[in-house]
Amino acid sequence: MAPMTKFGVDDPNQYLEGFGNYHSSEALKGAIPAVNNTPQRPPLGLHTERISGNAFTAPRDRYMQTFLYRSHSSLLHDEFVPLEVTSGYGPQTTAAPAQINPNSYFWPSFPVPDQAHWITGQAFLGSNGDPVKKEGTAIWVFSVTEDMPARHAFSSLDGEILIIPQSGTLDIQTELGFLVIRQNEIVVIPRGVRYRVSLHNGKPCRGFVCELFQGHFRLPDLGIVGTTGLANVRDFQVPTAFFDGSLVNGIAKANNNDGEEWAIVSRLAGKLWRCNQKHTPFDVAGWHGTCYPYKFDLGRFCPLGNLLFDEHDPSLYTVLSARHHGAEPGTAVVDFVIVPPRWNVAKDTLWLPYYHRNTMQEFFSVIVNGQDPAFAFNDTGRVGNRFAPFGAGLHGAMSTHGASEIEMRAAQRLDTSKPTKMQTDGLTAFVLETERPLVLSEWAYACARKNPQDKERLSAKM
């Protein structure tokens, strides 16, 4: 059997494959012009538009751009105005970092709204930079119980976003095509790309968003490891073009429903803004380039490990990394790390991380990788949109962290002379390691436990 997740939800979409590859996709044959990106009269009556993900003068191997061929320019909209919408979590969840101290934080669960869609269902947890200065990153918690309102699309103007479902499935329509994102998958959507989020079969979905204010997520360098292992280039999936319309007498006509307005909601400097337009934002008949959404099945991650003795650093489990090019080599703005099912074989070695302090901040939680509907954490009747089995935790820089005393004693009693399959309980741990301290919102601070011993109490209950 291929090493991938056997999902409980089917994905009907076709995808392109390859992380960072130059891709091309047409929803209508002939939509992409040959050779000349900007012909005087593009095919099918389309308009040429480009999304540039970085400076024009960036090195060729880092440059991210995509040409779109669409029936209407996205210029055609009215003025952006502040969107005064109350989050499903309440007004206290405004995107204002406020609290920092040396404590570890633990959230056994998060208070979540009874009803919320993608726009109202995101709560700001904290950040460690400034989206206006294009520094650092932010973390949001989401809990979605309903589709986005009809004819609404969303985008982040602050940064590239990494969506990590803890449980549930999202159907995402982007300007470049459709993606289905299931638990044990992640998706990255570039800054500025518009998309719409719906639920699969109406079932709630909860999880986390990491918003990257500077640079882009990339695969980590493998160095002495060689050319394969961890997350491989070929296993990333990219959507294929979808045109919300049809071809009429050789002209691409979008489904504009007699001028019914679309609302484009965008996040800038942590605040929501809205403009209206009289055409669908999903009128791209073809695209080509390197700046696009992509998804990855975490079941395809190839973990590398210790075959004899001692503990290896958690950097060995890095899936994606956003490099900090202005800092010393090896420094990342944020790393996305998972601890997946794997074999442990190191003899006479503690099979848990030792207690340690380091320069990075660690925000951690779990993903439900078990797909059986009968699995305890997939039972929506019992769990609902409550974060389970665990909300999240945060260890600050140089804050001592590690296993609880209960877990440590159990690990010390293990027979390490026999290979053992680890993490077989239907859960995958993940960590967002950030360079700078995460400053929490008042909402996140108020609902957190702040005593490092709370982790032991939590472990005793799980």
UniProtKB/TrEMBL annotation:
Ranges where the Homogentisate 1,2-dioxygenase N-terminal domain occurs: 14-298
Binding site for Fe cation: 356, 362, 401
Organism: Apiospora kogelbergensis
Keyword Nucleotide-binding: no
GO CC term (a single one): cytoplasm
Segments crossing the lipid bilayer: none
Pathway: Amino-acid degradation; L-phenylalanine degradation; acetoacetate and fumarate from L-phenylalanine: step 4/6
Record domain Homogentisate 1,2-dioxygenase C-terminal: where: 300-450
Gene3D superfamilies the record matches: Jelly Rolls
Keywords, comma-separated and alphabetical: Dioxygenase, Iron, Metal-binding, Oxidoreductase
Superkingdom of source: Eukaryota
Pfam families named in the record: HgmA_C, HgmA_N
Protein's recorded name: homogentisate 1,2-dioxygenase
EC code(s) of this entry: 1.13.11.5
Record-listed homogentisate binding positions: 401
BP terms from Gene Ontology: L-phenylalanine catabolic process; tyrosine metabolic process
Lineage, uppermost ranks: Eukaryota, Fungi, Dikarya, Ascomycota, Pezizomycotina
GO molecular function, one term: homogentisate 1,2-dioxygenase activity
Co-factor requirement: Fe cation
Protein family according to the UniProt entry: Belongs to the homogentisate dioxygenase family.
EC class name: oxidoreductase
